UniProtKB/TrEMBL annotation:
Catalytic activity, EC: 1.1.1.267
Organism: Xylophilus rhododendri
Segments forming domain 1-deoxy-D-xylulose 5-phosphate reductoisomerase N-terminal: 9-137
Protein name as annotated: 1-deoxy-D-xylulose 5-phosphate reductoisomerase
Residues reported in the UniProt entry to bind 1-deoxy-D-xylulose 5-phosphate: K130, S156, E157, S184, H207, S220, N225, K226, E229
NCBIfam families in UniProt: Dxr, PRK05447.1-1, PRK12464.1
Length: 396
C-alpha cells in the first residue's frame, strides 16, 4: 500500500547480474524501496559506483583488504556508508534489525551463511542463490520455518511455478500431479556430444537467451543448472523428486509449468528477463512494473519442446540420485560442481570432465547428516578437497 513505509532492502551480490537487475527494478520504485545495504565479493570499484548512486547505510566486501579500499574511496567522496567485511559482515547485514528484505544473489555456497542469517531473523528472503538451498537442504528450510522468514523464489523457473500454484501451500500435494521445469538446453543443445570435449569457456558462457554470471552460464551448458533447480524445487515446493520433471524449451518463453491432478497445465510466460521474477519477489503479493519488454506474439515464431538427452547432459540425473542419497549428498554435489566449473573456466579440465569430477566426488565423499551450518561447511570443504584432487588427476 502507498501509505506503508518503504521496504528496506539488502542486496547481496549487488555487482553481479542478478544484483544489477534488482537495482534496475528498485530504481523504478523509489517510493517503495530503500537500498539499505549493498554487498559484493571483491569488486571494489563497481561497489563504490553503486554506493555513490544508491547511498546505502551499509556496504560489505568479502575481505577486509577490499573493504579498506572501499572505505577510503567512500571517505574521499564524503559518503557515510559503513563498510563491513567477510562472512561475518555480510551476515550482520542480512540479519540487521532495520532490514526488511534480503536479495540473496551471491553465487555459490558462500551465500549459505548470509541466507541462514536472513532466515533466522525472519526476513523476506528473495532467493536467487540456488546453491544455498542445494547445500542447506532440509536444514535450511527448517531455519526458514523456525525464523518465520518469507522465502520467495527468484530463479525464473521457480518463480513461474510459484506463480502457477494455488495460494495455499497446504493444497499443493493434493492438487498437483507434477512440476515441470523448462530448460533452454544451453549453447550446445544442437551439438554432437562427441564435439563437447573441445569447447572453450567462452563458448560455454555464450548463452543463447540469458546474459548471466560465468558460473551459472557453464551450469546451463552442462544442464547442472537444471539439476540444481530440481533440488531447489524439491525443497521449495515439498513435492517428492519423482514428481519433478524437466523439458527442454529452447525459446525460454514458457518459464515452467504445474501439471494438476486433472491433467491441466498452468504455466507462466514472458520474454526471458530476470527483472520479471525479481519484481514479483519484491512486490509479492502485489505486482509492480519490472521494465521488461512485453511479449510480442507476432515475433514469436514458434515454441518447441523436447526431452533432454541423457547422453548430451549426463549430469542432469545426478539431481534425482543425490536427492535419494543421505542428507548432505546434494551439498557434496554442489561443492564438486563449483570446483569442477572453476577448473574448467581456468582451463585445467575439459568441459566433459566436469561431470567426471562430480561423479568421482559423489563416490568418494560420504555425508554424515549435517545438522548445523558448521557441519555443512565442513562437508562442503571435504567435498571441495576431493573434487580438487579429482580435477588435478584429470589435468595431469
Ligand atoms: P554473478 O557472478 O554475476 O554475481 C555474483 C555476485 O556475488 C557478485 O556481486 C560477486 O561480487 C558476489 N560474490 C561472489 N562471491 C562472494 C562472496 N564470497 N561474498 C560476497 N559476495 C560474493 O552471478 P549471477 O549470475 O548474478 O548469479 C547469482 C546467483 O543467482 C547464482 O546463485 C545464480 O545461480 C543465481 N541465478 C542467476 C540468474 C541470472 O540470470 N544471472 C538466474 C537465476 C539464478
Ligand atoms: Mg533458472
Amino acid at each position: 500500500p502507498a501509505t506503508a513505509r518503504r521496504q528496506r532492502l539488502a542486496v547481496l551480490g549487488a555487482t553481479g547480474s542478478i544484483g544489477a537487475s534488482t537495482l534496475d527494478v528498485v530504481a523504478r520504485h523509489p517510493e517503495q524501496f530503500e537500498v539499505f545495504a549493498l554487498c559484493a565479493g571483491s569488486q571494489v570499484d563497481a561497489l563504490f559506483e553503486l554506493c555513490l548512486r544508491f547511498r546505502p547505510a551499509y556496504a560489505a566486501l568479502a575481505t577486509e583488504a577490499h573493504a579498506a579500499l572501499l572505505r577510503d574511496k567512500l571517505q574521499a567522496h564524503g559518503l557515510a556508508t559503513k563498510v563491513l567485511s567477510g562472512n561475518a559482515g555480510v551476515e550482520e547485514i542480512a540479519a540487521h534489525p532495520q532490514v526488511d528484505a534480503v536479495m540473496a544473489a551471491i553465487v555459490g555456497a558462500a551465500g549459505l551463511g548470509p541466507c541462514l542469517a536472513a532466515a533466522r531473523t525472519g526476513k523476506r528472503l528473495l532467493l536467487a542463490n540456488k546453491e544455498a538451498i542445494v547445500v542447506g537442504g532440509r536444514f535450511f528450510m527448517d531455519a526458514v520455518a523456525a525464523g518465520g522468514a518469507t522465502l520467495l523464489p527468484i530463479d525464473s523457473e521457480h518463480s513461474a511455478i510459484f506463480q502457477s500454484l494455488p495460494d495455499d501451500p497446504a493444497t499443493w500435494d493434493r492438487r498437483v500431479e507434477k512440476i515441470i521445469l523448462t530448460a533452454s538446453g544451453g549453447p550446445f543443445r544442437g551439438r554432437d556430444p562427441a564435439s563437447l570435449k573441445a569447447v572453450t569457456p567462452e563458448e560455454a558462457c555464450a548463452h543463447p537467451n540469458w546474459s548471466m554470471g560465468r558460473k551459472i552460464s557453464v551450469d546451463s551448458a552442462t544442464m547442472m543448472n537444471k539439476a540444481l533447480e530440481v533440488i531447489e524445487a524439491r525443497h521449495l515446493f515439498g513435492l517428492p523428486s519423482a514428481r519433478i520433471e524437466v523439458v527442454i524449451h529452447p525459446q525460454s518463453i514458457v518459464h515452467s509449468l504445474v501439471q494438476y491432478r486433472d491433467g491441466s497445465l498452468v504455466a507462466q510466460l514472458g520474454n526471458p528477463d530476470m527483472r520479471v521474477p525479481i519484481a514479483y519477489g519484491l512486490a509479492w503479493p502485489e505486482r509492480i512494473e519490472s521494465g521488461t519488454k512485453r511479449l510480442d506474439f507476432s515475433s514469436v515464431a514458434a515454441m518447441t519442446f523436447e526431452p533432454p538427452s541423457a547422453q548430451r547432459y549426463p549430469g542432469l540425473r545426478l539431481a534425482w540420485d543425490a536427492l535419494e542419497g543421505p542428507d548432505g549428498t546434494t551439498a557434496v554435489l554442489n561443492a564438486a560442481n563449483e570446483v569442477a566449473v572453476q577448473a574448467f573456466l581456468d582451463r585445467r579440465i575439459r568441459f566433459d570432465e566436469i561431470h567426471v569430477v562430480n561423479l568421482r566426488t559423489l563416490e568418494a565423499v560420504l555425508p554424515d547428516a549435517p545438522d548445523s551450518l558448521a557441519a555443512l561447511l565442513e562437508l562442503d570443504s571435504r567435498a571441495r578437497a576431493e573434487a580438487e584432487h579429482a580435477a588435478t588427476r584429470l589435468s595431469a
